[in-house]
Write a structure and sequence with these properties.
By secondary structure, the chain is mainly beta. It has one domain: Lipocalin (Beta Barrel). It is built from one helix and eleven strands; from the N terminus they run ββββββαβββββ. The protein has an eight-stranded antiparallel β-barrel with strand order 1-4-5-7-8-9-10-11. A hairpin with a 5-residue loop joins strand 9 and strand 10. The longest helix has 8 residues. It is globular, with a radius of gyration of 17 Å. It starts with a strand and ends with a strand.
Length: 174
Amino acid sequence: MAWKIDTTHSQVTFSVKHMMVSTVKGNFHVFGGKLDIDEANPANSWVEAEADVKSVNTRDDNRDNHLRSGDFFDAEAHPTISFKSKKVEVAGDNEYRVLGDLTIRGVTKEVLFNAEYSGQVKDPYGNQRAGLSAKTAISRKDFGMSFNGLLESGGAIVGDKVTIEIDLEATKEQ
């Protein structure tokens, strides 16, 4: 039975180095998806999710507008980021490797998320809930986001490695 991501209790965040000395973090306010959790046979589990690129938020309107532009996400031409799992493997106690296709800017690459399953619980209203977190790192250049500038010291203004972290709670569909 499928589960629906409860977006009020979930978040999709990313982080990237800025000026080689600090880390800028952001998130997507609008996202959603479905998943299936098979505790008895995790290989049967799957997830499909997407985020609305226009909802990117780094707490700076100018930076967010630049991220939506053709230099980065190109939100007009590619309004969503999507992920569709292909394989789920057990990696340890409540730890899993989720391999799937991540699509950003119309470019699809296979990525591996390391995930931790928090289990299930029944909420006070009788709804079954499940929680999990997942993390991966990608090269933004692999997805056509090569915009950058160089510092006098030789480093880049924006790092290439982007860490993606997902914390989600899902409710079982009735």
